Amino acid sequence: MTSTRERQRAAARARLAQEMAERQDKAHKRRQRQAYIGAGVALLIVAGGVIWLVSSLGGDDKTTAGAESSAAPISCAWTEVPPDQRTPTTKDVGVPPTTTPPTTGTQVMTVDTSFGPVEVTMDLAKSPCTAEAFSYLASKQFWDGTKCHRMFPGMLQCGDPSAKGNGYRDSDGTGGPSFRYANENLPVDQRPAYPEGVVALANSGPDTNGSQFFFIYQDVELSPDYTVLGKVTKGLENIKKATEAGHDGAFDPSPGGGHPKSDIEIKTLTVAAPAA
C-alpha cells in the first residue's frame, strides 16, 4: 500500500512537471512574439527604404522637371571630308558653327518645288543635329536650283548639289557637302519604319549623312538605317503629283530605281527659326 509520503512526493513531481511545461510554453510564445516584432521592424525598414528609393529616383513632378532641365546639352560632331576624298560632286561649305543645337520645339523646312511647296516639320528633341545641319546648308542656298535625281516606288530622293540643269540625269547621286554627321532618330521600333509622309536621310553607310534626303509618299518597307529628319505636314500631294509619271529605270537592277521622268526642281529650300 502506497504511503502518504510517497503520494505527496508524486504530487509534487507532477506539479513541478506542469510548472516546467507552462514555463516552456510561455518562453516559446515570448520568442514567437519577439520574432514577429523583429520581422515587423524589418518590414518597416524595407518599406521605408523602398519609399526613400522611389522618392529619390522618381521624385514628384517638380523634381523630375528639374532633373530634365539640368540634363547635359547634346553635342553634334561634324566630320570634314578629307580633301583627298572629295570629288567634283562635293560642295565645300565648311561646317555648321555650333555643336550644341536646341533640343526642344520644332522647325519647319519649306521646300518650294516646281510642283508646289512642301512643308516638313522637324522635331528638335528627336533629330537636333540633323535639323542643325539642314538649317546651316539652307543658309548657304545649298539646294536651290537642284533637281530630285532618283525615285523608287514610294520614295523620291533629292539633295544632290550636282543634280542641276538639263544634265541632271547624268548625276550619279554621290554629291553632298564637305562634312558628315552621325545617325539619329532611327525608327527601330516602328512598323513600317518609314510610313507615308516621313522625310529621311540617304546615306552610304552608318553615320555618313550629308545633304541627300528622300520623301516617303507611300508606306515602304526599309530597314531602319536612315535618320528620320521629320514629317511632311503640308504639300504631300505635290510630291505624289510629281512622281505620277514614274522613273526611267536608270539605276536598275542595282541599286534600283531611276531618274524621275518629270523634272522635279527644288527652287528654294529654307528652314525657319526654331519654334517653342
TrEMBL record:
Segments passing through the bilayer: 35-54
Enzyme Commission (EC) number: 5.2.1.8
Gene3D superfamilies from the UniProt entry: Cyclophilin-like
Catalysed transformations (reactions): [protein]-peptidylproline (omega=180) = [protein]-peptidylproline (omega=0)
Gene Ontology terms for molecular function: isomerase activity
Domain PPIase cyclophilin-type stretches: 105-271
Pfam families (alphabetical): Pro_isomerase
Presence of keyword Transport: no
Record keyword Membrane present: yes
Region (Disordered) residue spans: 1-30, 81-106, 245-264
Biased composition, class Low complexity, residue ranges: 87-106
Family: Belongs to the cyclophilin-type PPIase family.
Job description of the protein: PPIases accelerate the folding of proteins. It catalyzes the cis-trans isomerization of proline imidic peptide bonds in oligopeptides.
Matching PANTHER family: PEPTIDYL-PROLYL CIS-TRANS ISOMERASE B-RELATED, PEPTIDYL-PROLYL CIS-TRANS ISOMERASE-RELATED
Protein name listed in UniProt: Peptidyl-prolyl cis-trans isomerase
Organism in which the protein naturally occurs: Asanoa iriomotensis
